[in-house]
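Practice problem: predict the structure.
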Amino acid sequence: MVKKAVFLGSKKFGFNIFKTIYDANPSIDWMILCPPDFADTRTYFAEFQQFSQIKNLRLEIADTAEKVTEYAAEFAPDVMIVCGYYRILPTKLLDSISMGVWGIHNSLLPKYRGGSPLVWQLINNEEIVGSSFFKFTSGMDDGDILDQVKIHNSTGLTICEASELIEHEWIRKIPVLWAGFVAGNIQPYEQKHQLATYCAQRQESDGLIEWAKSALDVDAFIRAQDFPYPRAFFKLDEQTVKVVKHKIDPRKIYGTPGQIFQVSSDFVTVCCAGHSAIQIHEVEVNGKLLAAKSILNSVKIRLS
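Answer:
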């Protein structure tokens, strides 16, 4: 039976998940813990703050896992829900909460355990991508699963589109899941650990485009890091150029990967591996949006 609960998280996804859980049973006594992510363009701290004031909920900023542990020990919740928190939580905390610490990991566990799982699923052009509601353990995303959602990637989703579809599916499912938590009636199941795969946390510098890959792979790479992520990029005369709008060129084009094949009025065509190419329509340089042809203005240009 849940009477007191802690939510630990951030970002739009985390905020909407928490709102859904809260609205499913407003009688629960909640504490909200948010990381200090104010410098992140994806921050939703103001929304968390406003919601907590309206609902008269306690909100605290937890800048370390130790602070999270301290607040949880003081509040003594029956359960903790995590969504949008990316630090390892100590075993002491996981063991101290009677119904455990549960959260959302954006992959179909046991696949893609680790960092940036949704980005990696899109980079790898998975036909089905998904998300898991699971129990935290001292291992890497290896706890029991309560439920999963799946979406099709057949249309070539951006990271934003995939995240929104996953969010929509969880918002649809969570009221029933939370009712089970509140009643103390949940039936999680063990992961098939022998099928586990892992992925590394990504950072902005990992977004450098490799033109020596096929246009299909380059397209997936760009979509996986689209806004609100920092975007995939290439270098031109030591300048970082981020790709804003692009599509796969349908033609079979022979050229050296990274070579500018064509500069047209609407786009610039860049050669990729396997006689394929990408059309770049719009780019971002130093925060300014530009037509691709304004900087990629010659077929003599070679992008490394």
